[in-house]
Design goal:
- The protein has 137 residues and is α/β, with parallel strands linked by helices.
- It starts with 17 loop residues before the first helix and ends with a strand.
- α2 packs across α3.
- The protein has a 5-stranded mixed β-sheet, covered by helices on one side.
- 31% of the residues lie in helices and 17% in strands.
- The protein has a domain of 86 residues: Nucleotidyltransferase, domain 5.
């Protein structure tokens, strides 16, 4: 009769987590990079069109003014009385950035002028109003 001996040297089995960690690291990098490009005012605006409209880079400070008179900066609603302080805080982070006002076509002109005034009082030299380029048929 033959007796079999089982070897005592068992291999430890484990799950290799390196591919999963690589995947999550790539996903994290993707979200960090894509979040850096999204810095608009956080408001869907029907901008007026202009033939001289030019595209600015995304480092600008965006102020959104809706048709109903709501003001948004960095995707948060801001009261007109706090607009100057908000722009000063953002200019401390990005001192050379222009201020772009994205006013809706139906926004009150007085509110747009007041927002421009608050931006200039906050120290912004370059203040522009956003417009959509005219589409040629």
């Amino acid at each position: 009769m033959k007796v079999r001996r089982h070897s005592q040297a068992r291999e430890d089995t484990h799950i290799d987590l390196a591919p999963m960690l690589d995947f999550f690291l790539n996903l994290l990098i993707f979200f960090i990079i894509s979040a850096a490009f999204v810095s608009e005012s956080g408001l869907k605006i029907n901008r007026p069109s202009a033939q001289t409209a030019v595209k600015l880079d995304n480092s600008a400070i965006f102020i959104g003014i809706s048709a109903s008179g709501e003001i948004f900066v960095d995707r948060g609603r801001v009261d007109i009385r706090l607009l100057r302080a908000t722009i000063e805080r953002l200019r401390a982070q990005k001192p050379k950035s222009p201020v772009v006002i994205q006013a809706d076509r139906d926004a009150r002109a007085g509110l747009v002028v007041e927002a421009m005034d608050q931006a200039r009082l906050a120290g912004a030299i370059d203040v522009a109003i956003s417009a959509a380029p005219v589409s040629t048929p």
